Amino acid sequence: MQSVEKAIEESRAKKKAIIKKSLLGTLVLIVVIAMGGFLVFMLPVTSTEERDPRNENGTTSSPSSIEASQQVFSEAQRKALQVALSKTKERIEAMSARVSHSERFHEAATTIENKLDDAFNAYAASNYANVKQRINEINDDSSALLNAFELAYTQPYEKALAAFNQNDNGTAFNLNRESLSVNPQYALANTLQQRIDVFEQVQDAYEQARIGKIENNITKQQQAYATIVKLDPLREDASLALAALNKQQTDTQFASLLAQANRAIEDKNYDVANGVLTDAAAIKANSEEVRVISQRLKTLIAGENLNKIEEQVAIFISADEWETASLLAAKGLTQFPTSTSLLKADKNAKAIIESRRQIENFQQRPERLADSNIKQAAMLALRNAEPYFSQSEKLRAQADTFKEMIDDVNTPRAVTITSDNDTYIKVLGVGIVGEVKTKTIQLKPGTYRLEGSREGYRSVIENIHVTPLTTDLSVHIICTEKV
Fold first, then answer.
1. Which of 63, 222, 299, 425 yields a CA-CA distance of 20 to 30 A from 194?
2. What is the C-alpha radius of gyration for the chain, rounded to an integer number of angstroms?
3. Rounded distance, CA 237 to CA 235, Å?
4. For 296-445, where are the E strands, in sequence order?
5. Residue 91 has pLDDT above 50, yes or no
6. How far is residue 12's CA from residue 432's CA, in Å, rounded to a whole number?
7. Measured distance CA(462)–CA(417) in Å, rounded
8. What does the alpha-carbon distance between residue 404 and residue 392 come to, in Å, rounded to a whole number?
9. DSSP code for 411
């Protein structure tokens, strides 16, 4: 894999740098070794088959055994080693970055990094068994290092936290600094350090809260605990105390608003009561007390509104203005559909208005009253209106006038008939006038046909209309056209 090859190249480059730095010493060593090798070469030796060479571990390391060791690892196994080396390299790099702030652990990490370089070199030399062994060693070493690193900063932190909770701020400061010197990024230690830094201010605020309690000054206590919570949000006791004080203040304010609302209701100052209840509901939206008082207020306001409407309706009834009374009653019934007073007023208004309308229709065409059917309908309208005479003087007066009209309509009116004393005249359907020069007859209001006839002459017809208002009505009938 490319990463493994790159790692190998880096390892080789590192080795070359070391060799260059110690070049003189290396050259001397090479000369000594060369001389020794030459002497060994010159000595007589037994054949290869008789020799029993041993490696540094005392085991056989003949070329054939080395070749066999290399052949044990297949292509798949070598690729697996490559993957293992790459992952190990990633873990070691992450470990080194994590412990880099501590000189002690940084040096230990460097040692493990060197072992990793040796593993890469072994892989480059095809010493696969050695690579596998070194990877295991590296993993064990890195795990041990990380465990030791974690203990190095967590144990001082825990001791610092315990000291802080005992208000031993100096000890807490020193121990927490020790933790941060190992791992400056440890979040818990950084949080504790912030609490340590504001410790004195927090203690001053606690003292102010204590004084406020002695003075029974809720506001002073609230301010003190709010300061503590702002400086050190992890002070749970301060948070609980502040919440309790806020609740106490809210309950007191809420009770005061309810009392104000009840007083305003007793004084019938409903607008003020409604505003105060709105403020109370803003504090406790689902309060049963607010609901009960609001319902009581709503009932009282509704009753007051109903009384106002009923009073207005009564005023117009007394003024005999039933059209306006009807409008107000109908409007009031949309809000108070069960109001007995409004229901009665609405019923009477409709009946009176309808009676006046019917009578007025008859009065507009009085001549129709001469008809018996029309007269009968008119009398029925009067009977229907009669129960309401006591409530509407205007209706009574209109009915009296209408009665007189009915009587007057059936009173005959004088009609003068003139002729030539030769024409025979009769009122069709009524009676005979005869041959007259002039004659006055009495006819009730209505439409009549008068016929004139004379021997040797064409008959003539005259239509006349007698109304209740008719006075001095005359008609001239004479036959003039010979046949």
1. 222
2. 63
3. 6
4. 413-418, 424-427, 431-435, 438-443
5. yes
6. 158
7. 11
8. 19
9. S
